[in-house]
Write a structure and sequence with these properties.
- By secondary structure, the chain is an alpha/beta fold.
- About 50% of the residues lie in helices and about 15% in strands.
- The protein has helices spanning about 15-30, 50-60, 70-80, 100-110, 150-160, 175-180, 195-200, 225-230, 230-250, 255-270, 275-290, 295-305, 310-315, 320-335, 335-360, and strands at about 5-15, 35-40, 60-65, 85-90, 95, 115-120, 120-125, 130-135, 140-145, 170-175, 205-210, 215-220.
- The strands form 2 sheets. An 8-stranded mixed sheet has the order 3-2-1-4-10-6-11-9, with helices on both faces. The protein has a 4-stranded mixed sheet with strand order 5-12-7-8.
- The relative contact order is 0.10.
């Protein structure tokens, strides 16, 4: 397909020479050909930059930018600053996409006029290629949230609650929305920068189309940031990010204390506390929240949450809202009993649902 909207494919590259060919080849092989492929060499020292230049000499659609190492957010922002496409796609240099991805996404956009297209992700173990599985396997759907209340509920129950995944690599984005709202990745944020961008972009939308095809092939390997970071480091970066939301969230988003609470629940303590080991881990995390360098700020958010528990329930819904409230109550008091009580309700609910499925199987 030679005509049609231009798609900017942005790839941050830092010392990924062993994987880069597979990544760039998957972009060059797209059945939709009206592309610009922007390779941002983020100060590589392993020859990745030279390989990028070699690709640019072979394919006129490829442009290369070399910069001093600034991290993945900086590299993606550089790509956004130079992008000219109607749509934008981000791909990590050690992953690849199916050759029909761009064609399917552009076709959906042009046919439906939606604000965001989200596709599926297939994870593959670097050590065992045959060990593949789908991430967030959902049915095709169009989700609309035309009112502020519906948008707030969608942001909490779907985006921040991680029902669609937090990776920016499974979406194709409208560049006009990105530029109109001055959206960029948060510089210096080592982890969770994807979730932050996805959240803020979606807050500017009125609808979202989910396509269940597994377009993005994610390579799992042991040296990724998420695999090498310990619990305290993950906690630190999440607190830094959610604290920054107080500075720029507007009326299109729920209050920062609600947004942060949903993320904390999902990321750190959203497991049934069935064993003493589970409970000890949850108590340890609550203690870490309270005693971190952002602890005083978090205690302030907890006070807001406890005072405004009704608003939490209205935005998050009863099931999620009760857990957010109980989490903040535990942070504020240091007493896990409120969280345990809500968790017990959760376990009873899950047991009841399982019992109903047993007695009343689908016909």
């Amino acid at each position: 397909m030679k005509n049609g909207p231009l798609v900017s494919m942005i790839v941050p590259v830092y010392n990924k020479r062993d994987y880069l060919r597979t990544c760039v080849d998957s972009l060059c092989a797209q059945t939709y050909t009206n592309l610009e492929i922007i390779l941002v060499d983020d100060g590589s020292t392993d020859g990745s930059g030279e390989l990028c230049d070699a690709y640019a000499r072979r394919d006129p659609r490829i442009r290369v930018t070399h910069q001093v190492n600034g991290g993945v957010s900086s590299a993606r922002n550089t790509g956004l600053d130079t992008a000219r496409g109607d749509y934008v796609y981000f791909l990590d240099a050690d992953d690849r996409v199916l050759e029909t991805m761009a064609a399917e996404m552009v076709s959906t956009y042009e046919r439906e006029g939606c604000d965001l297209c989200v596709g599926g992700i297939m994870a593959r173990d670097e050590q065992e290629e045959s060990n593949s599985y789908r991430i967030f396997h959902l049915e095709a759907m169009l989700i609309q949230f035309p009112t502020l209340r519906k948008k707030h509920r969608f942001l909490c129950q779907w985006i921040l609650n991680n029902k669609l995944g937090w990776s920016v690599n499974s979406q194709v984005w409208r560049r006009d929305i990105i530029e109109r709202h001055h959206l960029r990745f948060k510089d210096g944020q080592k982890i969770y920068e994807d979730m932050d961008f996805f959240f803020r972009y979606t807050a500017c939308c009125q609808n979202l189309r989910y396509i269940p095809q597994m377009f993005y092939i994610y390579r799992q390997h042991a040296d990724s940031v998420m695999h090498t970071s310990n619990e305290q480091e993950l906690l630190y970066w999440m607190l830094c990010l959610t604290r920054s939301w107080n500075e720029y969230l507007d009326a299109s988003c729920p209050p920062a204390y609600i947004c942060a609470g949903v993320v904390y629940i999902r990321m750190f303590v959203d497991v049934p506390l069935r064993t003493e080991a589970d409970k000890k881990r949850a108590a340890r995390i609550i203690h870490s929240f309270r005693t971190s360098e952002n602890g005083e700020w978090l205690l302030g958010q907890a006070r807001l949450a406890v005072r405004n528990w009704g608003r939490i329930l209205r935005i998050c819904g009863l099931y999620l809202g009760l857990r957010v409230y109980a989490f903040y109550k535990s942070v504020l008091t240091g007493d896990m009993s409120a969280f345990y009580q809500v968790n017990q309700l959760r376990l009873w609910s899950e047991t009841l649902c399982a019992w109903k499925r047993t007695l009343l199987p689908d016909r």
